[in-house]
Design a protein that fits this description.
- With 267 residues, this protein is an alpha/beta fold.
- The chain has a single domain, classed as Rossmann fold (3-Layer(aba) Sandwich), CATH 3.40.50.
- Helix content is 42%, strand content 14%.
- α3 packs parallel to α4 and α4 packs parallel to α5.
- The protein is globular, with a radius of gyration of 18 Å.
- It catalyses: 2,5-dichlorocyclohexa-2,5-dien-1,4-diol + NAD(+) = 2,5-dichlorohydroquinone + NADH + H(+).
- Pfam families: adh_short_C2.
- It comes from Sphingobium chlorophenolicum L-1.
- This is Short-chain dehydrogenase/reductase SDR.
């Protein structure tokens, strides 16, 4: 059976964390027949991923415009013009407004917002008259969760950027969308979910009753990228958490006291 992306070239930035969403997205695109270039700051895991999926690894700091330009140049030279570009890279900066003097707010903006401006610019320059760009946002951009304001606000700016880019590049049939995942049980988050009750407390506020796996996010990415009449959308991919609210830190701690076994479902 021919894959959805057979014969197409794709770029996935932010794919160096094995067991993470960017990694899973790259694998899913390759499984659908795409030639995939993967980018991130850490080159060793990228090379393992590229070897696994038969792709190309390019070192790229998502907050450096020159790196983003080089990523698209190298990917285009090696794999041909991309028709798909995904940016899953992010800096998870956390803190309170009261403590903002000591936070690296500019770095959060440089990677999570400004970096995506350059990502879209270079993606659309590399693409022809048809393509799909997907940016990975966060449920916290629409559902406030302390102390995530630096991260969430930079992601909200990115979601606004998506809507403007969809209008600007619509005449070229280039679609631009973002996904807003809720909690994801990645390998990097294993320490968080290892705490008694942590996963169950989060799952309690999710309509589907479980925390997402990276494969859940990758499946949604394939669907959204392949949807030819969808653009300018900030899509909640949170198992229905957007219908309720995220679990608060104090609730997670409280749940742990009442449910020492942890409860919840693992994905």
């Amino acid at each position: 059976m021919t894959g959805l992306f057979e014969g197409q070239s794709a770029i996935v930035l932010g794919a160096s964390a094995e067991g993470g969403s960017g990694w899973a997205i790259a694998e899913a695109f390759a499984a659908q027949g795409a030639r995939v270039a993967v980018g991130a700051r850490r080159i060793e895991p990228l090379e393992r991923l590229a070897s696994k999926i038969g792709g190309v690894a390019v070192r790229c700091d998502a907050g450096q415009p020159a790196d983003i330009a080089a990523l698209f140049k190298t990917a285009t030279e090696r794999l041909g013009r991309p028709s798909i570009a995904v940016n899953a890279a992010a800096i998870p900066t956390y803190g309170l407004i009261a403590d903002s003097a000591s936070l690296d707010l500019q770095r959060a903006l440089d990677v999570n917002y400004v970096g995506n401006v350059h990502f879209i610019r270079h993606a659309t320059q590399a693409m022809s008259q048809d393509g799909s760009i997907l940016l990975i946002s966060s449920a916290s951009a629409e559902q406030p969760l302390l102390p995530a304001f630096p991260y969430a606000c930079s992601k909200a700016a990115m979601d606004c950027l998506v809507r403007y880019a969809a209008i600007e590049y619509g005449p070229r049939n280039i679609r631009v969308n973002s996904m807003l995942p809720g909690p994801i049980k990645t390998e990097m988050a294993a320490r968080i979910y290892a705490k008694p009750g942590a996963e169950a407390a989060r799952a309690k506020e999710i309509a589907l009753g479980r925390v997402a796996s990276p494969e859940d996010i990758a499946e949604a990415a394939v669907a959204l990228v392949s949807a030819r009449y969808v653009t300018g959308v900030n899509l909640a991919v949170s198992g229905g958490m957007h219908l309720t609210r995220p679990a608060r830190a104090d609730e997670i701690a409280s749940f742990a006291k009442t449910d020492p076994a942890g409860g919840g479902s693992a994905s």
